[in-house]
Design brief:
The chain has 182 residues and is mainly alpha-helical. The chain has two domains: 1-102, RNA polymerase sigma factor, region 2, helix turn helix motif (Rna Polymerase Sigma Factor, Chain: A), CATH 1.10.1740; 118-182, Winged helix-like DNA-binding domain superfamily/Winged helix DNA-binding domain (Arc Repressor Mutant, subunit A), CATH 1.10.10.10. The chain is 76% helix and 0% strand. Helix 2 packs across helix 4, helix 3 crosses helix 4 and helix 4 crosses helix 8. The longest helix is centred in the first third of the chain and has 24 residues, at 19-42. It is globular, with a radius of gyration of 17 Å.
């Protein structure tokens, strides 16, 4: 993979003769991180693949219009977050489930997932994360796993840094309590 900056990838993408090559470079750089971000939100491998595919379709269709008001990474994660949450909402609507039933099903799916290779403690952590309200779960995943700064997270989620700090703090406390009680 050529060592191009995000700006150079965008410039290449806008050149019709280099569009596909630039997209392949972008995929090589970000696809795995985007997959794991989606996976932490939807928990199922198949759902993560679907969310990632939807994300990449949107990126392909809109990358030439990207204005670089935020970083490319931030923009990609915003799309991946929105696609993951949209997929969850669509599945919930289709299944006619309430939030509690959905959380239980997600936890059961995680335990039965053939791709999950974590130990018992990792499974407990994932169950604790799944027990969080949606916003806290997203904030926790971005901060804990992606090590995203609050400033960047603010651009991804379009909310204030103070609200994100509060959400993360509450999420950590709930996870700690879940792990102690479990």
């Amino acid at each position: 993979m050529p060592d191009l900056s995000d700006k150079e990838i965008l410039e290449q993408f806008r050149d019709p003769g280099q569009k596909e090559a630039a997209f392949r470079i972008l995929l090589a750089r970000y696809q795995e991180r985007l997959y794991w971000h989606c996976r932490r939100l939807v928990t199922s491998h198949d759902d993560a693949d679907d969310a990632l595919q939807n994300t990449l379709i949107k990126v392909w269709g809109n990358l030439d219009k990207f204005r670089a008001d935020s970083g490319l990474y931030t923009w990609l994660f915003r799309i991946a977050t929105n696609e993951s949450l949209t997929l969850l909402k669509q599945k919930n609507k289709y299944n006619g489930s309430d939030d509690r039933e959905i959380d239980e099903r997600v936890t059961e799916n995680l335990s039965a997932d053939e791709y999950f290779d974590g130990d018992e403690l990792q499974l407990k952590l994932q169950k604790a994360i799944q027990s969080l309200p949606e916003k806290q779960r997203v904030v926790f995943n971005l901060k804990y796993y992606e090590e995203m700064k609050y400033e960047e997270m603010s651009r991804v989620l379009k909310t204030s840094e103070g609200a994100l700090k509060a959400s993360y703090h509450h999420a950590v406390k709930k996870i700690e309590k879940y792990l102690k009680d479990e």
